[in-house]
Design goal:
single chain; alpha+beta; 5-stranded mixed sheet; 12 helices; about 10% strand
Amino acid sequence: MHLVLGGALLMPYWMLSVVLLGALDPENGPLHQVLLQLASLALSLPMAAVTALVPTVRALEGAAALALGAPERAEEVSTGPARSWAARRRTSTWYVLHLLFGGVVSGMTLAGVPFAVVLIYSPLGGPPIDDALRYWQDRGVPAFLPGPALGLALLLLITAVSAGLGALLARWAPVLLGPTPEERLAAAERRAAVLAQRNRLARELHDSVGHALSAVGIQASAAARVLRTDPDFAEEALRAIGETARAAVAELDAVLGLLREEDRTDAGTAGPTLAGLDDLLRQLAGTGLRVDADLAPGLDRLPTAFSREAYRIVQEGLTNVLRHAGPTAPAGLRVGLAAGRLEIELTNPLGTARPSRPGGGRGLRGIGERAAVLRGECTAGPTEDGADWRLSVRLPVGGAG
């Protein structure tokens, strides 16, 4: 079917060529007619090549090749318009081959199949067969050719040529209709941007929602333990749960804003920054976690995007303390500014065991990814004496740019 389509597409160019060349030389004879057909075919192909430079031709030919041609590596055949001259030239080459092969197969089919049928039935004789034989003899076909054998051979030849040319087009489709190296690079860059955006969303959801759920879980457990013995503390814990949940919902809305095209500009700076560390520490105090914090002045004047990423690093570090060391473990936090660098150091007692979720968490990996985005460095592990766990992050101010 794909080759038949090529033959049909060739017809306008071929008919125009026949008219032009026939007007130049009106002589009529068998040999002249054969030469006229061949010359018309040769003239048709350059005209087809020029029209194939139209960008939408690649989209149409690509869709036709996928639907009718069964090309090899079909996933590499483009169905979009050609946006560069390199892609247009390749499309033009494909279009010429498609029309040429389609014209050859269509011509062989239209002329060869009836002739083969006449040859096969020639021993039967009769007026229809005799008339058909005279028709072909008048056009230069020798009368002594063996009928049935030659007819069958001709049908096999037409079938073989059609299959061979179809296989060639199927093999060349990914090469000539596939993306150019520039298009492949652009597609790879788009995929990388999408993956980076997904990773960023995953980090945001992990840090904001994960932190909130950890805090809520610990606060709820504490409230349940002292509900009858210390109702005031239980009431305070429940109030902290409500505040944590509301803050998590607000942060979740900001993160989901990244998924909305219309909010993408504003979503980049949404979320808390280092200026909100006091609120974070106050929230964690409701879980019982004691944090000895040393916060440098001027954190609220850092670039917003940079400050937001640094806040997430501190938040995830404190959440890890809450998860692994427990709410009763003391923690030390230092956030300082020195020589154009932001330094974050968080320590907590290591203890005898550090429980973790099945399969491991993603906290430290997320912190490392954020530090890499900001062109900083991150180290985490036990201290020299093995008594504490230390998270150390150093970020150049403005490193996100």
